[in-house]
Amino acid sequence: MFAQFEEILGDGESIDFSICRQGNRLTVLIQPCFNGSDPGSDDPQLAQVRAILSMPLCVTDTAANLDQDFPTCLTQYVGSVSDGKSAFAQAVSRIREAAKAADSLATATTADEKTAQTPENAEDNDTAPGGANLPTDSKSLF
User: Fold this and answer.
1) Annotated domain spans of the chain
2) Tens digits of residue pLDDT in 56-77
3) Cα separation of 12 and 34, whole Å?
4) Going by C-beta distance under 8 Å and a sequence separation of 6 or more, which residues neighbour residue 27?
5) How far apart are CA 1 and CA 28, in angstroms?
6) How confident is the model at residue 139 (pLDDT cuts 50, 70, 90)?
7) What is the structure's pLDDT at 99?
8) pTM (2 decimals)?
9) Distance from C-alpha of 65 to C-alpha of 124, rounded to nearest angstrom
């Protein structure tokens, strides 16, 4: 069971585990306490997604049934949380890569705009002044 907990916990994270008796039944609550949003991220939406991954596992049953079924239930829960954390980490990674690509594109676009605004061949004196390429067979002086 503890190897499964270790699988879903990051450094400094914890799991609150409580058992409450209600008559002849026990309620087992497992509440992951993750470290807010991903380190280096200030996005509140990412923090919300991370909080969703902290969804608790709460099971109420007789002690005999919990002895029999709880390990399987815990394995499924840990698998779901682990998959969710992995998908979250991949999404954050893709978002960061996209942000870097957007920054690179913006930098390249800005550089291209500056190049386009700079007159090319400003020192080239071989070009004729405007109007010098008029046809010579014109009969009008104007």
Assistant:
1) 2-111
2) 999 999 999 999 999 999 999 9
3) 8
4) 19, 20, 21, 58, 59, 60
5) 14
6) low
7) 86
8) 0.59
9) 91
Residue 96 pLDDT level (bands cut at 50, 70, 90): confident
User: What type of residue sits at position 16?
Assistant: D
The amino acid present at 142, given as its one-letter code, is: F
The pLDDT of residue 16 is above 80: yes
Q: How far apart are CA 117 and CA 109, in angstroms?
A: 12
CA distance 129 to 51: 69
| Block residue for tokens 């306490």 | 33
Cβ neighbors of 58 (< 8 A, separation 6 or more) are 27, 28, 29, 30
Q: Look up residue 68 and give its two tokens.
A: 């029999």
CA distances to 5, 85, 97, 131, 135 from 90, in Å: 21, 9, 10, 62, 67
How many C-alpha atoms does 30 have within 13 Å on its Cβ side?
A: 17
